[in-house]
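Progress report, Aim 2. The chain analyzed during this reporting quarter is listed below.
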Amino acid sequence: MNVWLNGHILPLEKAHISPLDRGFLFGDGIYEVVRFFDRTGMAMDAHMQRLERSLQLTQIKGFNARELPALCEQLLQAENLRDACVYLQITRGAAAMRAHLPPDNIRPTVFAMAHAYGALDTLTTAAPISLSIQPDLRWHRCDIKSTSLMGSILPMLDGRAHHADEAILIRDGFVSEGSSSNIFVVRGNKVATAPINTDPSILHGTMRTLAIDAAKQLGFDVSIRPIEESELATADEIWVSSSGRVLASCVSLNGKVFSTGKPAKMACAVINCMRLAVENLLVKTP
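Predicted structure tokens for the chain:
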């Protein structure tokens, strides 16, 4: 396996990072995950915009978010991958000693790796996913795609008691997001997802935006509004969107079968619409 580290592609076993790197010591870093189909990045512009936002909000300097497509392309070529996910991580870098306040001249550590993922023709149906409902105890800057993910990992660990793959996080009686995703609740023809610019904020999900566009294109009534926890139990469908999954459909909630126990009809229609959008993009890409 080849990886990208600070401008070089090299075998994973030769990629070394200092134990003084602030990503290791403090979780002081950000990341992005981009899904590729036939070497074309899904929502690449949105990923670059979100990466630039995370860099600005964390004041991490020394990397241009516009370099993301070229970096990914070099890595995919090195790994001979066409359908894949690329993980990019940028930490503030390594200083001479451990201190909470970093020096002004610190250089970031840039790391990326790629893994094979399913081709576009695998997106014919929404994947089944089991969910649990957990309290949202994370910090208030969830709009930053930070590598400090303990607050997301703990509710997922708690959800193992229900054999859950993901957790729906609840703050003050309302759905905020998933532990590594955005959440949609469907009842009848109405689709709702939580607003991103709240206090505290949630992640500006790239697949969330594409799912909203697809649902509108299909004629569903889409609203961006606060979602009460009580709406989960009475929902016809619950969707989970993320870069890796694209769009998944809840089949189990808190250890009990949800709805029919199979990927739901509207979720499958939306992911098919998203797939067609990507197919059109691939046709236009030289």
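The longest helix spans residues 265-284. The CA atoms of residues 8 and 151 lie 32 Å apart. These observations will guide the mutagenesis work planned for the next reporting period.
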